[in-house]
Amino acid sequence: MERKAVTFGRFNTFSRGHESFIQSILLEWSKVSIGVIENNPITVEDNLFANFIKECDRNYIKPLNKIQHRMNLMELILDEKNFLENCSIIKINRPELYPEKFNEMFPKNVYDVVFAIDTDSQFDIKKIGIFELLLNRPIKLVKPDKIIHSSDIIKMGIEEIGFSRSAIDYCQKHGIPLGGEYYEK
């Protein structure tokens, strides 16, 4: 049986960096499942990795777009790039809180967990090791041609470079945040 890839994230606004990441996965695996994390409130006081989970929460743009918008935008862009037929987009709970559920949905004998490696990001390096422990499986790494985080796109004011025209148009049409800033309806 051919192995499949699985990756996950919040994917608040699907950027050109995300496009490059999915493309790099599809160069090595024929199919990828993309878990889009729901934004559910959490309590992590008794969790061994509580500090890491809190760091994850600090490391994204707020507010998160509604999950259906995030999934619709991802589907639109992946279809535009002709990747959609090799991708499945799935709503998931946070793997760091529910590793058993994640491993049940994406069995180790079928799926490789794949992350992008950004050697300039201490958080990304830490994230890889912690998720290997949490999920009790190795994390495979790909090096996308373009690594750019949505928060950096917004901070640098390079929306036209960081997001495809379709992503910008979708956000404007639906009056949803582009990475973290609201457009006027």
UniProtKB/TrEMBL annotation:
Gene3D superfamilies reported in the protein's UniProt record: HUPs
Superkingdom in the source lineage: Bacteria
Stated name of the protein: Cytidyltransferase-like domain-containing protein
